[in-house]
Specification:
This protein is mostly beta strands. Helix content is 5%, strand content 46%. It has 2 helices and 38 strands. The longest helix is centred in the N-terminal third of the chain and has 19 residues.
């Protein structure tokens, strides 16, 4: 009996000590609770870079230690799958961010971070994008010289507008290069196109320039002064005209970027406004329509004009009616034109059948909008430079785009990857 009583007293003393002796509980050993303010982008491919903004990913860094990078001690997961996250940056007191990459095997779901013994989970899901690739596509590099825009003639000669070197260069199929125009004054060149007679038209500063086959350079319309005015030749005003195209009659069309309008220039240099007014987004007739970020233009065989406008593709009929034919919000989603999402759209081209191809610079891919209203990914994945099958190819920001007579696509790319790429659709 005494032995049993002694054991009971020992057990009671042990239990009491758990309350009386200061403990190293989990709560007291844990650091500040991490928080996630936001992450961007909200959707992307496997391998996509994602920035997570919040706080307490690592212990707060003193101002003396500055922005960073600082070694990351937290664990980042995409719907439970661990991602690489080597560094944390201290943006300010109470604000940090992590740059990470969507890991292999990740699926759509929340992002979670385990830091200093605590876990935080995002309130919004990250959507893992699964592109619907066009089959039998091959990507190659055709020139190590690149630029912001490109066009091609019937003989296969490429014409590249290079905004870094302030020049227009012709590249023959055998790789020989000839400089057709250059600016000692470092004039900004944004777009290039050829007409049926191999005249070159280019948007340079606030003007539309023409280079004839014999090399003569002239200003078709505009002056060095930015502004907005319709009229003849030097009486017209543009404000950074960007993408440019021509019709069978030699008329020129351009996306007048900072005027948020689409302009037409006749062979005689008479400038008129087809559509647009102030910045915004609305469909409608002529000046009742609004554009947000018109970059490039192209024409189909029926005289319809197509415009890349932010995350949407707009159509202008010959009588000036503007409609949206594809795109919703910014993102990346293939499927119906009514639900598809694009990033930052740049170059655009239309094949003889009416299929539309566009450079989705924000997603580093080329997309196709078929006549049946379906959006697919032609080629590209995450940022980089890689030739091969379409789904494995990599581009920088996809910029200028053109089609040759055989239906192959040629594009220029940004991100320091100045080359011309070719996409063959089998």
């Amino acid at each position: 009996m005494r032995k049993w009583t002694n054991n009971l007293i020992a057990i009671l003393l042990l239990i009491a000590s758990m309350y009386l002796i200061p403990s190293c509980s989990d709560d007291e050993s844990q650091g500040p609770v991490p928080v996630i303010f936001s992450f961007a982008p909200s959707r992307g491919l496997i391998g996509e870079e994602v920035t997570i903004v919040g706080n307490n990913f690592i212990p707060e860094v003193s101002p003396k230690e500055a922005y960073g990078p600082h070694a990351n001690t937290s664990i980042v997961k995409f719907n439970g799958v661990v991602a690489e996250a080597e560094y944390v940056y201290q943006d300010s007191i109470g604000k940090q961010h992590i740059n990470t990459v969507v890991p292999e095997g990740a699926t759509s779901g929340p992002i979670s971070i385990i830091a200093m013994g605590n876990v935080v989970t995002s309130t919004e899901d990250f959507i893992v994008t699964i592109p619907n690739y066009l089959p039998n596509v091959t990507v190659s590099t055709v020139s190590s010289y690149g630029g912001i825009d490109v066009d091609i003639d019937a003989s296969g000669n490429l014409y590249v507008a290079n905004n870094d070197r302030f020049e227009i260069v012709k590249i023959t199929p055998d790789g020989s290069m000839t400089t057709l125009w250059s600016s000692s004054e470092q004039e900004m060149i944004l777009g290039i196109t050829l007409d049926e007679n191999d005249n070159i038209y280019s948007t340079i500063e606030q003007t539309i320039r023409k280079i004839s086959p014999d090399g003569a350079v002239s200003i078709l319309a505009g002056t060095s002064t930015p502004g907005f005015a319709d009229g003849s030749g030097e009486n017209a005003r543009f404000w950074f005209p960007f993408g440019i195209t021509t019709d069978m009659d030699g008329n020129v069309y351009t996306a007048d970027l900072l005027n948020y309008r689409i302009r037409k220039i006749t062979v005689d240099g008479i400038v008129t406004t087809l559509a647009g007014s102030t910045q915004g987004y609305s469909d409608g007739q002529g000046d009742q329509a609004r554009f947000s970020n018109p970059i490039d233009v192209t024409l189909d065989n029926q005289g319809n004009l197509f415009v890349t406008d932010g995350a949407k593709i707009r159509k202008i009929t010959p009588d000036g009616l503007v409609s949206t034919i594809a795109g919703t919000t910014n993102g990346y989603l293939d499927g119906s034109v009514n639900t598809a999402q694009f990033g930052d759209l740049w170059g655009i081209a239309v094949d003889p059948s009416g299929n539309i191809y566009t450079c989705d610079a924000g997603n580093y891919v080329v997309r196709k909008i078929s006549l049946n209203g379906t959006v697919m990914t032609v080629a590209g994945s995450t940022f980089g430079h890689k030739d091969g099958p379409g789904e494995f190819a990599r581009f920088g920001q996809t910029l200028g785009l053109t089609l040759d007579l055989a239906g192959a696509l040629y594009l220029t790319q940004g991100g320091g990857l100045g080359t011309v790429r070719k996409i063959v659709l089998d």
